[in-house]
Specification:
Helices cover about 45% and strands about 0% of the residues. It is mostly helical and about 80 residues long.
Length: about 80
């Protein structure tokens, strides 16, 4: 984390589940789980890209790895 946490982690660690206030968290109903999609887990890899390609993706801002993944997924799905 970039910022120092103001959470008292020791006190939180000692709390029992029934002591946690969940009143501001909405319940997730059946409809939520019926519409939920499974996202495959990510796996770290090393890949060699042309420097200009990588620079272009990075220049688009945060999330460049996600955009590269989406493009690769689109290509993969178009080949199936």
């Amino acid at each position: 984390m970039k910022q120092v946490s103001k959470t008292n982690w020791q006190a939180l660690d000692q709390m029992q589940d029934h002591e946690v206030d969940l009143s501001d968290i909405a319940e997730l109903g059946e409809a939520f789980f019926e519409q939920a999609i499974r996202i495959p887990p990510k796996q770290p890899v090393t890949i060699r890209l042309d420097s200009d390609v990588l620079s272009w993706f990075k220049s688009q801002g945060q999330g460049y790895q996600t955009r590269i993944n989406k493009l690769l997924r689109n290509y993969m799905e178009s080949q199936q």
